[in-house]
Amino acid sequence: MKKDRKNIILQSLASMLEERNLSKITTALLAEKSSITEAALYRHFPSKRSIYAELFSFCDDSIFAKCNELKKSKLPAKDKAKNAYMFFMIFIEKNKGFARLLSREALSANEQNVSDNVNQFYERFELMLRQMLKEDATNLTTQPGVSAQLIVTAIEGNIGRYIRSKFKVPPSTYIENIWDLLSISIFKN
Question: What does the DSSP assignment read for 119-178?
Fold first, then answer.
């Protein structure tokens, strides 16, 4: 039951991140949305920051589980990078609240440690892409690090665009076109 309540709280926060003015999410509102008391919320999480941290941890685990699976696969480097990019964008599309976490829009000064985790997440994701691309470095138009940086920059830009559209223009709308443009910039053929 305790784990179920924690999941309900995390799902409630993710839902609130999709629909609310972020500066207005309080522990009282989160408790209400979760159908528990504020005291019960604090029995599961010592602080609002820890709720955000655990929600981000779920996002991190989900994306890196897929990336590690891709990295170990026998796919060509180009397909690994494409699949990592596509998975990331579809994951964000289906989990709008994570878009606000990964853009840092949902985080206040009190959640600085979560913001630092987001920064490290992007650095690790870029490193993962660099390692994938390095497998076929001779087919790259530039260094693997520059190519990985371009993909991450496109991802962050697409997340920002998705939020600006108030989640009305999903990343999948032009995902193939954007990958084609990235691919032309990154790969020789």
Answer: HHHHHHHHHHHHHHHHTTGGGBSS-HHHHHHHHHHHHHHHHHHHHHTTT-S-GGGSHHHH
Domain that holds residue 14: 1-45
Terminal CA-to-CA distance of the chain, rounded, Å? Answer: 54
DSSP string of 155-168, one letter each residue: HHHHHHHHHHTTT-
Query: Comparing C-alpha atoms, which of 66, 104, 81 is closest to residue 154?
Result: 81
172 in the same domain as 96? yes
* pTM exceeds cut of 0.70: yes
Are 62 and 109 contained in the same domain? yes
pLDDT over 70 for what percent of the chain? 96
Say if residues 81 and 132 touch (Cβ distance below 8 Å). yes
Residue 108: pLDDT band with limits 50, 70, 90:
confident
User: Quick one: tokens of 159?
Assistant: 């997340």
At residue 31's C-alpha, the angle toward residues 29 and 36, to 5°, is: 145
The C-alpha atoms of residue 27 and residue 115 are separated, in whole angstroms, by 19
